[in-house]
Amino acid sequence: MDGAEEAAGEMEALGLDAFMAMDEAARANLPKSRLKKMLRLEANAKKKEEKAKEQAGAQEAETRRRMEEAEKVVITMDPSLPQAVKCKIGKLKCAPAEDGGHIGTRVMLQGWTHRLRWESKKLLFLELRDGTGYIQAVMSGNLCMTKDALMLNREASVSLYGTVCSDERAKGGMELHVDYWELVGSSPAEIEMILTHESNPDILLNQRHLVIRGTKASAVLRMRSIITQCFREHFFANDYVELAPPTLVQTQCEGGSTLFHFDYFGEPAYLTQSSQLYLETGIPAVGDCFCILPSYRAEKSSTRRHLAEFHHIEAEFAFIDFEDLLQRIEYLIADVVDRVIEKGGDLLQVLNPGLKPLKRPFKRLTYTDAVKFCRQHNIYKDEATQTHFEFGDDIPEGPERKMTDMIGEPILMIKFPMTLKSFYMKRCPEDRALTESVDVLIPGVGEVVGGSMRMHDYDELMEAYERENIDPAPYYWFSDQRKYGTCPHGGYGLGLERFICYALAQHHIRDVCLYPRYRGRIEP
Ligand code: 4AD
Fold it and tell me: Is ligand 1 within 6 A of the CB of residue 502?
């Protein structure tokens, strides 16, 4: 192969860019026909480039001209208009003023530009979001010809003054006809590039502070607040007292493998796994009590229902038996679902219109029968080898969910073997190998509640510490509960985020948190 052929071969591979980078001497080595073709391509490319430059220049000049023009446009508030009433979108009522509504009223709304749609240079539709709702605002003429208007992007914050008008086509039947507006905080155009439909889950989580402004994410957060309120209302309606146990502790509640250790002014300490032990000490003080606080688990698994920090709704009651406990748990879940349906309104209709009141009583299934169910329905301990569960095996998340989905209704799974459960659980009087324990399993989500009767005999608790190799010293205050006026008592812990996944039909637990914490993520 001679030099010219070699150069031609390279050209095929490298293309026009390589040719344009060649010096005269290198080009002289190319075969004539090839050189001619490449020169023609080069000339075309240069022409194209010049044209693009010209167009960009013209566009820049046009933008500059429009900006200069826009700078001359000054808008002022018309003092002859009625004083605007400062309002929240969610409070606007689609009815005439004489019926206590806002149609025809001049209002001032403040919020963020959720969407922008330019109909023409002189007509802009702006969807305003203020956290309480959304409203379409119409801006026309000079109002959308100012420099601020030309530079307006999504997520800028604005104050809009205008009259509320009824419009059947608009969401909520109302529209704001703007007569004056002010930019409060601009938002750069790059907002459009940060999140796109193609953004992968990791990008969405890195940009969670922006994602939560979205229609769906913000609806979930608002519903989370309503659901939390429903739990509090259930507790207060039933005369429980809210307590606030510490979350920085020196005792473990649910086993050492998921403890977060930290240095507490030179002393070893943990982030709490559950407030249960402290809550138990509250019952002789205030009676039935509850708390809604974060719990922490150094979970190795990062499944769609595990977090490292979750909100734990825990309650504790004195002088009850196991049957009372089961009924209280069932009542809590069914009553909170009823309250969520009643309070959820439009948000619930959008997120989960299928949420229905729960049928009571819930199905009860002993651990022993659950093992039988799995064996009968080919739910295996090990799929690959088709190994069946035996009594005493832990039924992990996957098989447990399969069983729950097959049964298709909430289940109170009860009486787990002592070997599978925490040190503090009371034994069943009829079979001391079992505990008076309960997990609530819900189709689609799995376990949402864990609870039990507590060991209330001092000596039995001491034996349990020994069996589990736990030093009783840091638990003296918990043990004292059994020394000074012990009584039969029990309680439960419900994972708020898991319950929200169920109530709002959300697949992934991360989507119901403001800023989820799980293995591999601690920002933002
Ligand atoms: O079953 P658990 O571990 O029970 C306890 O912590 C008891 N001390 C509670 C009590 O009796 N006061 O946890 C209770 C519930 C689970 O059913 C689950 O809903 C939730 O807490 N939970 C988690 N939620 C999200 N991520 C995690 N890593 C969770 N671990 C537990």
Answer: no
